Amino acid sequence: MPVTVKTFTSTSDAAAALSSDRSARYLGGGTLVMRALNEGDISISTVVRASDQAMTRIDATGSRTILGAGVTFARILAERDLAFLHAPARSIGGPAVRNMGTVGGNLFAPVPYGDFTVAMLALDAMVSVQGGLGGREIPIDEFLQSRDRQTGALVLAISFAKPGSADAFRYRKVARIKPKGGAVITLATHLPMNGSRIVGARIALGSMAPTPIRARAAERALEGRSLDTSTINAAAAAAVEGTLPGDNALASAWYRREIVGVHLRRLLSGQE
Amino acid sequence: MAKTALQFRHNGRDVAMFVDGGTNLLVALRELIGDMTPKFGCGQGGCGTCSVLIDGELHLSCLTLAETVAGRSVETLDGMKDGPDLHPLQRAFADNFAAQCGYCTPGMLMAAKALLDRNPQPSRAEVVEAISGNICRCTGYEPIINAVLSAASGGRARA
């Protein structure tokens, strides 16, 4: 069914168009919205686009990195300053999907997709959103909890503090097909250290609930401790707590619950 | 619903058409200008047989809103050969038995071209990565990888 395509030069005009029409969806790279249109999704009658260059800006010069919502995974892979994000960016799709898919769109990607968002959740990112009544910054976990209600708002950018060291941020995607394919589960950890103690542990899981979630019990097991075998075992044992995985063609909910602790242990231990 | 005028370069030639809102580039190429080389596979971005180059970058035409290529350059398999002469990649695919049913071949060739255009001497791992978004159910991939390696700089690709 034909839809109306509205292209705006300003993000505020695009946000106004999105918020005033429940059947409007923002088109970024197309990997979600065009797929829905190809499948005959009649809930979409208007497609909104914004050509504002701010949407594709990368600012990695300061202590906080800002990625415009329209930044593609291929561009992240081309940025040396974003080397810590190369693993999550490379784990998504093949080259064509990485040339098209965007960090903003990934926030809305359903299970078994949305791997980059798992990395963003571990980095405690803030999501910059423009609604009909103005802009605001939302913590990413809050954004994800209300994701279904966010389709009327325009995501402008995502920002986060760089990890203190290369080893502080770790990422692992478990997939049937490598290097592409939907995730069985996805894990990302950010473990800032104060001396030998972990302070502010963040563990994010993908495909363990309808949206990426924090493994808070596992985070508590790490907090204030050094990353030794007993701490890692305690975190691995707690990884499944609070999760709500589903069944799909890639894995059953049971299997996901069984392996999440195993892969968290491997990730924290630095195993391949 | 009103149609939208669209102009872009298709294999080096200017083309113009009217498209319905929401039309994807694959439909525009196949149904409006008759270029049947990009194939419809999954319509979800999973198979890669609709792959084309947009301004030299590999994209999935089934997931590309046609209007977004206005004023840009779109290359498809149809533009690869030079008159009766096959492109070296096409010749290598034939020589290495890299096409069986052939349905994935247009996407494989475009993905391979995108790789060789920026990296004329890829390693085997780089070839595997370059075609990782393209599914082939016949060949087992090895003949395709060998074909791309043999086409790369006359077969001087790195191991």
UniProtKB/TrEMBL annotation, chain A:
Cited Gene3D superfamilies: 3.30.465.10, CO dehydrogenase flavoprotein, C-terminal domain (3.30.390.50)
Molecular-function GO terms, alphabetical: FAD binding; oxidoreductase activity
InterPro entries linked to this entry: CO_DH_flav_C, CO_DH_flav_C_dom_sf, Diverse_Substr_Oxidored, FAD-bd_PCMH, FAD-bd_PCMH-like_sf, FAD-bd_PCMH_sub2, Mopterin_DH_FAD-bd
FAD-binding PCMH-type domain residues: 1-165
Pfam family, one: FAD_binding_5
UniProt keyword list: FAD, Flavoprotein, Oxidoreductase
Highest taxon above the source species: Bacteria
Database matches in PANTHER family: XANTHINE DEHYDROGENASE SUBUNIT C-RELATED
Protein name per the record: Oxidoreductase
Organism in which the protein naturally occurs: Bradyrhizobium macuxiense
Automatic annotation (TrEMBL), chain B:
Superkingdom of source: Bacteria
Keywords: 2Fe-2S, Iron, Iron-sulfur, Metal-binding, Oxidoreductase
GO molecular function, one term: oxidoreductase activity
Domain 2Fe-2S ferredoxin-type: 4-80
Entry-linked InterPro entries: 2Fe-2S-bd, 2Fe-2S-bd_dom_sf, 2Fe-2S_ferredoxin-like_sf, 2Fe-2S_ferredoxin-type, 2Fe2S_fd_BS, Beta-grasp_dom_sf, Diverse_Oxidoreductases
Keyword Cytoplasm assigned: no
PANTHER family reported for this sequence: OXIDOREDUCTASE WITH IRON-SULFUR SUBUNIT, XANTHINE DEHYDROGENASE IRON-SULFUR-BINDING SUBUNIT XDHC-RELATED
Protein's recorded name: Ferredoxin
